[in-house]
## 1
Amino acid sequence: MSRILSLGSALNDIYLIDHDDLKPTEIGEESIFGKILVGTKVDIDKLSYEVGGGGVNSAIAFVRHGHEAVLMANIAHDTAGDAILKVLDQEGVDTSYIDYISGKATGASVILLDSKGGERTILTYRGASKEFSNFEAEDLEKIQPDWLYITTLRGDLKTLASFLKKAHEMKINVMFNPGIKELEQAKELLSLLKYINILLVNKQEAGMLVPGANLEELLYHLKNYTKTVIITDGAMGGIATNSEDTYRFGLYADVKIKDATGAGDAFGSGFLAALASGKEFRKSLIFASANSTSVVTKIGANKGILAGKVDLHPMPIQKI
């Protein structure tokens, strides 16, 4: 068992689920929810209240795998914040480093979900999760984690750098899954990658950091910055290297997608959960893929997160 600190967002996810009014309509190369007209009332089939955010989702994944998980995130003193704490307490996540932000509400997303096709649009109010500058890297001395797992800090590279450098000083392993706000600062972000052990991005995100027309070229360039790189590519699977072995992998299973929310968080945290348990690189990739696949079969970003002892079937994965 490892002690893993998750640094990221905590949100309430409010699902509005319908089978016909949210059916996507094609307009050129874009899709919209075409049956919702301005000024009208629309009856929704189902309403579901969940919790999410990269910090919450990853912490839940770690405890379900048998690790000791600590969450560092911002919420507010409101009912939404209370709902997040209740779920985290039920899961067994250490919430003692969650901070309360005054003057803002707990972050929330309203997710419009087509129950037939699984298509969704997410309206997000970041609220208390918009900023992370209140967190101090010196707290790593108190927490003493074996791993630090960081999701997007909404472009706050100053806070990111302070945590990465402190973790490096303390010899804490780091896995990082950046968001668009970090990737938009590519030059500065690349300079920080020397402090991390594992980088997780998708193909489009990788292309924001380095040149490359395909996964192999993108991986070739990114591995010059950090030892382990994983690049996912949706239904095409992905590619990964730990500087010793390189794998191309496909989907764990072809399943009907009910809700893709949290799929990336499930892959990243699933990979680290397995790796921190002592599983080899290849098996950790398989568990990550299985975890992501399980999550998209349920509504909610963490309902389908797998336990560590689940039996897995073979999947397409090839050493290259």
Note: Residues 245 and 319 are 7 Å apart (CA to CA).
## 2
Amino acid sequence: MCHWRDYLELCKPRVVALMLLTAIVGMQLAAPGLIPWHAFIFGTIGIAFCAGSAAAINHLADYRIDAMMARTHRRPIPTGRVSSRHAMYFAIIIGGLGMLVLIFFVNALTAALTFLTLIGYAGIYTLYLKRTTPQNIVIGGAAGAAPPVLGWTAVTGHLDPQSLLLMLIIFVWTPPHFWALAIARFADYAKADIPMLPVTHGIPFTKLAILLYTFLLTAVSLLPYVIGMSGIIYLIGTLILDAGFLYFAFCLYFKTGERIALETFRYSIIYLMVLFVVLLVDHYFI
């Protein structure tokens, strides 16, 4: 029997929550003081609905693949708890509502950028890149990195280089984050014939790519301090976080087994979440 929790699961709430955190931090950094309440409330609602819609489309497009993978075979569509038709209606409805909220209560630029992000993730990444190239998560990562820009434009109504820098941090963070999971779930991706990097180029090569991307992330994450966008609190926080990520990347490179890959993956989530919280703290206390 279908339950409201099944529809919530279609929205990938934990993923969307992390995206919303970065969007809200983008809103806060865009304003010198408190942000306008309408931009915060309606911007958050609109972005959340559209992100949930993109996640539901991802569930719908991948349900055959999900049924073959141990990590995903109990999702609502493969188990039949939600039909494909109902999932499609749900995605259209919440996506449409999200766009209407952004158009009428936020601004046209945020609505347009959110729509492009939805198309990029649900269409280009899910339907094409994921199935055709081992660089899927690198190219498709641009869509997942957009929320800080969406939050920023929700407040200001225009693009700003600083918001693009926040996007760059997430863009560089995405490959080591997801490739660590791909190593841990190597058998699943191989069985489903998804050309993730460990499947096409091998686990040792992927570990090296993770390590190199983590060095790149360390450099990119320091740019907000270098350009004067943030202060000493952010510098100290990001140096600690970068040291932790490098530690896990080196451990992953030299060790074998699923456990270290999952630990690296989990740390990467903590890394991004705390990094943006530190950005916010630095913004209001420096």
Note: The chain has two domains: 1-159, 160-286.
## 3
Amino acid sequence: MRTYIYVDGFNRYYGALKNTSWRWLDLVALFQNVLQPHHNIVAVKYFTARVSGTPSDPAKPQRQNSYLWALTTHRPEVKLFYGHFLTHTVSMPRAPVTANVQMVAVVKTEEKGSDVNLAAHILNDAWLDRYDCAVVVSNDSDLAEAICLVKRHHPQKRIGLITPGTRSPSRQLSTLVDFRRGIRIGALQNSQLPDPIPGTQLRKPATW
């Protein structure tokens, strides 16, 4: 079965990888471990955004670059698609909220574009008949309409949902898909990229 996998990068990171030692992750190996053998993984489309350094962690961009370069070198079927971060100042109530509400200015950073890009690709690839099965790796209910449209106009195509981490899957997404899977710690442990990447000097960042 021709299978395309659509990964919401930050949903995957915060759901399954943050604060773990399994971030040097081989996505193709992971989905081979999670999915049944009849899935022929043709492509993994990875939707993310470039991170910026912070005063407490200025090396974030270097670690991300190292990982993405290693991943796409070792697994050419992984394709990257970038959104962007939007940072702005907003006014929000101070906690705890009382009758005399005090407002404070906070800096809010949001990742933009990945969900829209993912939705566009899963629809376009269905119309171009690139897959028999699409697997969405996210828990973002904003993707429900795109999945619904694929099922309505291409009822022969199967849609799967992989939920990162231990969170319960989105009810809205769960009602639309043909099957669901989780990502267990054992699958992460058994799906690490080689270090170094064979034939290169690309290595896992020492501070990860």
Note: The beta strands are 2-8, 40-48, 78-82, 84-93, 103-112, 133-137, 158-163, 179-182.
## 4
Amino acid sequence: MPHTTKAQTRARVVLAGVIAAAALWIGMAFVPAILWAGVLAIGVEPLRSRLAARLPRPALVAALLTLAVLLVVLTPLSIAISQAVVEAQAVTAWIADARAHGVPVPDWVARLPWGSSEVTAWWTLHLATPEAAAAEFGRLDHSLWRTHSGALTHTLVRRVVVFAFTLVVLFFLLRDRDTIVRQLERGATRAFGDAGDRLGRQIFAAVRGAVDGMVLLGLAQGILMSILFLAGGVPHPILLGLFSGFASIIPFGLAVVLVLALLLLLAKGAVMAAIVVGVIGYALNFVIDHFLRPTLIGGTTRLPFVWVLIGILGGVETIGLLGLFVGPAVMAALVLLWREWVAEGDIGGSEAGHTAP
């Protein structure tokens, strides 16, 4: 066998680094799609295992799961868009009527527990007469709206392309799952030894916990909020329930939807219903955000709550929605490395991964 010199080894490492950097630079636009596909593949792994036990064809299993992910995303999105279009038409008609006839002070303003006179005075000055209403709504700059609509269209097209590529990558990840896992385990072990395998398992567990804690709890929370809105008489309970499900995936995002629901109830004059919905909704949000979600995310990796919170909020702040899943995974890996360092004095000791702080 030809002898490899140290210079050749160094040159090979440099060449590999350059090629990897070039590949990352070329495919940078699709890195989010690849990461999303990885998150989704980890999230549907339990379902994939059950289907694979019944269906011997990996390609069929991958196709069914990819189609299921597509439907899970498109179905509520289609409902929300159709409802939003109807509401936008109603709002447009309301604004046109307000410009022509003004907006009388509604009855619920007089029933406000505080600030009634101030709100009445402001409403009379800015909205009560056709002239005032036309001037107030005339502040909307149509050229600015056109600019924002162009930017929105560009963002929407980009999101659609990324989502489509995510589905393609997800199909191949699911189809070739066993081969990919073996290669990742072998590569991690060769590069980092036993610590590499433990880090991989920790990251996998953190992503699984984040999917369960964010997505599944978010869907459950959306259903519960729809029932609460329907029982409380909130207008458009299904639409607001869908928004609640999406918003609850983001920490403290449900509070914004709850405020909107309470304002709609106050506009109807249903003060007591607003109080009941607000108390139950915020109590539900508190229990899920402070107890259930941290338990699901941190329980599988023994990740303390504060690190879960830092990973989620920091991830969202840094890389957007994808940070909900990447952030906890990074923090879980960091905590594991710290535990190994404290336990053994070196990262990757044989017993380090089994010692808690």
Note: The first helix runs from residue 6 to 26.
